[in-house]
Amino acid sequence: MPRTATPLLLAISLTLLPVMNAHGQSRASELSTLRDAIEGSVAAFSRGPSANAFNELLKEHWFKSTEAQSTATTLDAALQANRGAAELRLGKAIPGAYEFLGVRRLGASVAKLVYVLKHEHGVIPLVFDCYRAGDVWRILGVHYGDSAMDDMKTLAVVERSN
């Protein structure tokens, strides 16, 4: 076997390594860190009425830090108000029942994290729009209910019966 294969294999292997930031984290793990923070807030909200379920999340990860507190208050109030309407349509929320459906990526810097909150007779989607600004992922927006339905549908998997 010719000796030129080893450097070529090494070059290919190096190009397949994940892109690392200055702290040695890959872009995927940076998004994973944000996802963990989002997951904690979604879990708290899914357990039932709780003031400021998203307060800490937005304080740390909202794209405009000066608006994080007011945005968290507005978001919590809107989600609590919509919860009643959702229960009329879909039955009572199942405490603690939510599911992470997946991530929709648009290139390396834009992602949508899609969750559903489970009720007795259906689900309500909850979507977080995220953007990688420099070395940090930030939340740009949160969508709930009908405004998040299209994002939920794009993660659907069609299964055929044989």
Structural class determined from secondary elements: alpha+beta
**Number of β-strand runs:** 4
The proportion of strand residues reads 25-35%
H/E element sequence: HHHHEEEEH
Q: What is the overall shape?
A: globular
Helix content: 40-55%
Architecture blueprint of SSEs:
Elements: H1 5-15, H2 27-46, H3 55-61, H4 68-90, E1 93-106, E2 110-119, E3 122-133, E4 136-144, H5 149-154
Antiparallel strand pairs: 1-2, 2-3, 3-4
Helix pairs in contact: 3-4
Question: Can you walk me through this structure?
Answer:
- By secondary structure, the protein is of the alpha+beta class.
- It is about 40% helix and about 30% strand.
- The protein has five helices and four strands.
- It has helices at about 5-15, 25-45, 55-60, 70-90, 150-155, and strands at about 95-105, 110-120, 120-135, 135-145.
- The protein has a four-stranded antiparallel sheet.
- The radius of gyration is 20 Å and the shape is globular.
- The chain starts with a helix and ends in an 8-residue tail after the last helix.
Short description:
With 162 residues, the chain is an alpha+beta fold.
Pick out its properties.
single chain; 162 residues; alpha+beta; 4-stranded antiparallel β-sheet; 5 helices; disordered N terminus
